Amino acid sequence: MESLPGIDPGVPPSGTGCVECQEQEGWWFHLRRCAECGHIGCCDNSPGQHATAHEQATGHPVIRSYEPGEEWFYSYPEEAVFEGPLLAPPQSHPVSQPVPGPAGRVPADWMDLLH
C-alpha cells in the first residue's frame, strides 16, 4: 500500500476518550483520532476542541472520526474530507460509551455549551 503523508496505519489509538478531557475531568461531544500518532481528541463542537489543538501543537495534518460507524478522514491543510486506509484497531470508541461522554461528566445543559 502506498503511504500517505500524516497517516501511520500501524499506530493504535491512545484510548477510548479525549486524552485532555480525561486528564481535566471534562467532557466531549464527538471524538477524533490523529492518523499519525493515535492521539484521541475531542471535536471542534466540544468545549475543549482538543483534536484541533493537537494538530496545531504537533503539525500532524490528518484526523479520522473515532465515532462508531464513521470512517472518514479529514486533512487540516486541505480542509477536505477523504477516504483513507484501515487503521490499527479499534476503529472507534466503544459503542457502549455515550455521546456526548463520558458517562457521569456531561452537564445537563451540554447542548448550550457546544461550539
Automatic annotation (TrEMBL):
SUPFAM superfamilies on file: RING/U-box
Compositional bias annotation for Pro residues: 87-101
InterPro entries with a match to the protein in the record: Znf_RING/FYVE/PHD, Znf_UBP
Protein name in the entry: UBP-type zinc finger domain-containing protein
Chain segments carrying region Disordered: 85-107
Species the sequence originates in: Arthrobacter gandavensis
Residues in UBP-type domain copies: 1-101
